[in-house]
Design a protein that fits this description.
Length: 301
C-alpha cells in the first residue's frame, strides 16, 4: 500500500517510520521538499535508526492518492485537504490522526465519497530538527470509522508494531482525550508550567477541577461517557504521569505557533453554547489563550 502523509511533524514522521517498517510505501507531502527522498533519524531508548521516505510537493496535481494520513494541526485540516482533494480517488481511505475535535465534521463535508477514519494516539515524539526525531514512547493508538458504526479494518494498519485497537465508537475516545487536553493544555500554556506544576499550586489545581466539572456537564448532556472515575482524578493522574512534559499547547506558545485552542477548549465551548449550558471557566481560558496567541507575550523561562 502507498500511504501519503499530510503534515509530517513529529507524529507524521513517526507514522512514516511505522508504515515503512510494516512494508508500505510512504510519501511525505511537503510545502517545499528539498529532494526526492528525505533521510530522517529516529532516536529512541533502543538506539538510532534511519528512514528514507519519498517526498513530494503538496500540490493538487500528481499521482492518485488511495491512502492518506493527515497529521497536521487540527486547524490546518481543511486548508490542507482542499489542496489534495483532486488527487484523492473516490474510494480513498483518509485517516485523521490529530488532537482536538471539530475538524472531523469539516473533513467529512469535503470528502463525501471517501472513507474517513479518526484516530488518536498517546505516542510521544518531538522533532529535534527536520531530519531528527526523538521518540519518547509509542503509547497507544485507537482508530475508528468516522460517521458510521460499521466495524471496518483500516487498510494495512494491522501490521503496525504498536498498541493499536479499532473501535466502533471513536467519538467517545476522542472526547476522553479532549477532556484531558481541556484540563491540562490551556492552564499550562497560561502559567508557562510543566504538567505536574498544575497540581503543586493550589490555585491552578482548583481551576483544573473547575474545568473538569464543566467538561463533565457538557459530556453528560451529550450522552458521552467519559471515564469510570471523575475526570479531575483522570486529569490529575495524567498531569502526574506526564509531569515533566511541556504540554503541546505550551510548546506552540513558546515557538510562537498558533495553538489548537479552537479545537480543544473552543470546541467544548461551542458544544456548550448549542446546549444552552454555561461554562465560564473554560470560556475565560479560551479567551485568555486566544489573547496569548495574539499578544505573543511570554514570561521568561
Ligand atoms: O496530550 C497532551 C498534550 O500535551 O497535548 C497531554 C496529555 C496534556 C500531555 O502533555
Amino acid at each position: 500500500m502507498h500511504w501519503y502523509i499530510l503534515g509530517p511533524g513529529a507524529i507524521g514522521t513517526l507514522w512514516a517510520s511505522l508504515l515503512l517498517q510494516a512494508g508500505h510505501r510512504v510519501t511525505l507531502l511537503q510545502r517545499q521538499p528539498d529532494a526526492k527522498h528525505q533521510r530522517i533519524e529516529i532516536i529512541s531508548s533502543r538506539g538510532t535508526s534511519g528512514i528514507e521516505p519519498a517526498t513530494e510537493a503538496l500540490s493538487s496535481e500528481g499521482p492518485d492518492i488511495e491512502h492518506l494520513l493527515v497529521t497536521t494541526k487540527a486547524q490546518q485540516t481543511e486548508a490542507a485537504l482542499a489542496q489534495i482533494i483532486p488527487r484523492l480517488t473516490p474510494d480513498a481511505q483518509v485517516v485523521l490522526l490529530q488532537n482536538g475535535m471539530g475538524q472531523h465534521e469539516a473533513a467529512a463535508r469535503l470528502l463525501p465519497s471517501q472513507l474517513l477514519w479518526a484516530a488518536t494516539t498517546t505516542a510521544g515524539a518531538w522533532r529535534e530538527s527536520p531530519t531528527r526525531l526523538q521518540l519518547v514512547s509509542l503509547g497507544s493508538t485507537r482508530i475508528g470509522p468516522w460517521g458510521t458504526n460499521q466495524m471496518l479494518q483500516s487498510d494495512g494498519w494491522g501490521a503496525l508494531e504498536i498498541d493499536l485497537e479499532s473501535t466502533p465508537d471513536i467519538k467517545s475516545v476522542l472526547w476522553r482525550k479532549l477532556a484531558i487536553n481541556c484540563a491540562i493544555n490551556p492552564l499550562t500554556a497560561l502559567h508557562h508550567c510543566r504538567n505536574s506544576e498544575l497540581l503543586t499550586d493550589p490555585a491552578r489545581h482548583e481551576r483544573l477541577r473547575q474545568v473538569c466539572h464543566e467538561v463533565e456537564t457538557v459530556a453528560r448532556a451529550l450522552e458521552i461517557r467519559l471515564f469510570d472515575t471523575p475526570l479531575a482524578e483522570q486529569a490529575e493522574a495524567v498531569a502526574q504521569s506526564t509531569g515533566n512534559n511541556l504540554s503541546s499547547m505550551l510548546q506552540d506558545i513558546r515557538l510562537h505557533r498558533p495553538t489548537e485552542i479552537e479545537h480543544i477548549t473552543g470546541f467544548l465551548c461551542r458544544q456548550a453554547e448549542h446546549l444552552g449550558l454555561s461554562v465560564p471557566v473554560n470560556q475565560a481560558l479560551l479567551e485568555q489563550v486566544r489573547n496569548l496567541n495574539v499578544a505573543k507575550e511570554f514570561p521568561p523561562d
